[in-house]
Design goal:
Layout: E1 5-11, E2 14-19, E3 22-27, E4 48-50, H1 55-67, H2 70-87, H3 95-111, H4 121-127, H5 129-146, H6 153-167, H7 171-192, H8 201-219, H9 228-234, H10 236-253, H11 259-279
Antiparallel strand pairs: 1-2, 2-3, 3-4
Helix pairs in contact: 1-3, 2-3, 2-5, 3-6, 4-5, 4-6, 4-8, 5-6, 6-7, 7-10, 8-11, 10-11
Amino acid sequence: MEGAVIEKILNNNVVVAKKGTTDMILIGKGIGFNLPKGSVVPENRIEKVFINNNEEINQNYDKILSTVDSKIVGLSEEIIHNTELELDVKLSDPIHVSLPDHINFALSRYEKGLNMENPFLNELKGLYPKEFSLAEKGVNLINQRFNIQLKDDEIGFICLHIRAAISDSEVGKSYEYTKRIGAVMALISSLLGEAVDKNSLEYARTVTHINCMVERVKTGKTIKNQLLDTIKAEFVNEFDFAIKVSLKIEGIFGISVPEDEVGYLALHLKRLSDLYVLKK
């Protein structure tokens, strides 16, 4: 990116630059260090170039640049860049607006002593483990840069932004899907008669299984269950629970769960049930 001139330094690793009439975000370790506005950016410092061609997003990004602390915008770009590197994906352009806006709001809440609870934190961790891990790194970076301690709920919210940018959808859609999975897990807890430990490996496995099952049914790629008769005979209660959970899934997701999948679900419920029997 030869000839790009610095318009604004967001932090040492992120700058806003212009080449001719084209505005861009340039990212690289130490890219803004010891370079004043108007300097030409050395090519060997540039790791990533972001040029947005969507006029509406450009206008919104300009608003972000003028209203949000440069440190927050720069940090957001670093999180986006790190995510793209680790997942080897190109995140959709709206995250360049939505993420700094969200982080700015989160820091504002923190300063006022307000906490926004994320009721589906563990469901998000089970559904989107890679995105969740990157969101956790992002929150750690925020805490380090601003010398604060955001609660883990924030990991879930940033995870939603990352997931939405990967699937090129709105954050609300990812949240709604997670909410549906949460309703299924709440029914399972009710049927087992126990407060299921949301931090347990078994809980995460069950969330992952239900997510994969829904996707299999939607795409017509369900798996034949060779142990179905045995499961029905040996795990009567769990199979009965699995039928009830499957009916809930059908109602929420508008799909028809085949009996083979009900059997696999019963095995997961058996594992959860055994966990709480052992704890008593």
